[in-house]
Amino acid sequence: MNRMELVAEARLPTSFGEFRIVGFLDRGDHKEHVALVMGDITNGQPVLTRIHSECLTGDTLFSLKCDCGFQLEAALKKIAGRGRGVLLYMRQEGRGIGLLNKIRAYALQDRGMDTFDANVALGFRPDERSYNSCAEMLRLLGVQEVVLMTNNPDKMMALQSCGIILAGREPLEVGRNRFNTSYLDTKKARFHHMLGQLGKPDTDDESDIAGRNGADGEKIPGDTEPAAPV
Ligand SMILES: [Zn+2]
After folding, report:
1. 3-state SS record for 166-185
2. Distance of CA 55 from the midpoint of ligand 1 (Å)
3. Is 84 considered catalytic here?
4. For this structure, is 185 an active site residue?
5. Distance between CA 37 and CA 18 in Å, rounded?
6. Active-site option among 50, 129, 169, 176
7. CA quadruple 123, 127, 133, 137: dihedral positive or negative?
8. Paired residues of 87 in beta bridges
């Protein structure tokens, strides 16, 4: 029996365009996840795909401590720009340690620890996330082959190990600012994320990082880069 159950589906107009929202229940841990779908993703062509792990502070509270909100917005814009794709929104906050533990980890980071060591100091693995359910959700949506928007090699390997074909990767390098530069450098150095430069914010201009404002924002860095071969 499938662990993931497709429970409900509806239209979801957003400031980026009209998606379908598909709700899933994980029958193992009773977590609820969603997919935002645009266009025909069942025609056998590789599907532009983002697996986004929930980040309450970044996605909805405009935090500059990480790049999550920027990545979420950039991914939805890319899907809407091409009229076809899927974003899985996975409820695994704080790399799987939960919201309150993430705030505990932030407190350790305020005292100088990096995000990797903070999670370990709290008794967790550096990354507690699992992507098995993502592959099952994609299959339930009729997707076999993806072009994955990610900088994270773990996600690529995990999907492939679950039988999803990876046709390519598109980098999603956005939102670097003076508050998250060391966090992004940690992602590159200790989580082996495929990020470009180390140590330098894209901009010191506060107005550039203030505006996550829906579909009318400026061009997304990396938008013109071709999909890298896997
Ligand atoms: Zn975040």
Report:
1. EEEEECCCCCCCCCCHHHHH
2. 5
3. no
4. no
5. 9
6. 129
7. positive
8. 36, 50
Count of alpha carbons within 13 angstroms of residue 229, beta-carbon side: 0
Amino acid at 76: L
pTM: 0.84
Please give all residues whose CB falls under 5 A of ion ligand 1, grouped by chain where several chains appear. 55, 58, 66, 68
Rounded CA-CA distance 79/131 in Å is: 21
17 C-beta neighbours (distance < 10 Å), count: 17
One digit per residue, the tens of pLDDT, for the chain of length 230 reads 689 999 999 999 999 999 999 999 999 999 999 999 999 999 999 999 999 999 999 999 999 999 999 999 999 999 999 999 999 999 999 888 899 999 999 999 999 998 888 989 999 888 777 788 999 999 999 999 999 999 988 899 999 999 999 999 999 988 888 888 888 888 887 877 887 755 555 544 554 454 565 444 444 444 444 455 55
Q: Tell me the C-alpha to C-alpha distance, in Å, between residue 67 and each of 17, 70, 177, 181, 201.
A: 22, 5, 9, 10, 12
